[in-house]
User: What shape does this take?
Amino acid sequence: MTSHRALTTLRCTIPHQIPKYRQSYHSYEHNAPSTYTPAENAILSAAIAHVPAHGFTATTLSNGARDAGYLEVSTNLLPAGVFSLVKYHLVTQRLALSKDISTPPIQEPTNVLENVRALTLKRLRANEFIIHRWQEALAILAMPKHIPDSLNELALLSDEIHFLAGDTSVDTSWYTKRAGLSAIYASTELFMTQDRSPGFKGTEEFLDRRLEGAHGLRTTIGEIGRWAGVQGMGVINGLRSKGVRI
Assistant: This one.
């Protein structure tokens, strides 16, 4: 029950759980702050290539250390263990959103919704090569000790998408838009882990329905929270049946 609640809370957040801040930088405006040491970056970037075969596991980290030219014991440089690998994927893929954008917004500001859709899809598609392992990542993100960092990263993603989409709001809608997108992204990402349609067409259609149906923040979050609550329990039970300790 605790894991179920954590998963639902983590990836389908409500407004007061979104950190109330404005980002001091965006990846377009400045180089990203140095989040990782050279050794950490080398190990984690090499380890990501092993996720499709070995998942978000200590084995993957050890393989990454070996490929990067370090002893396997060098994974001790990552005190958060496999969470470091999950977070590395989240951070690098968030920052990658701006790489194909020479000057934001990607379209005229009047097309903010279309821009949000395009950027959200781009981020979701970055999960394609590891989507069969992403339920493992969700279980790791849902661990109580990781929830603050995980929620913060989700908030940063929503902020980055809105910024790159051309959103210039400065009133209270700044928060509600980002909280709403966090909920929409979270539910769509979870849906994608079970999507077997060609080219993840079902995920794209699911996202469109969520965006089109977002008439009000409370309605959107309530709907997604109920849906994810049911699906989240299925994720937890499925992982437990495979021997994952949750």
Notes: Confidence is low (pLDDT under 50) at residues 1-10, 12-25, 215-236. The chain is about 60% helix and 0% strand. The radius of gyration is 18 Å.
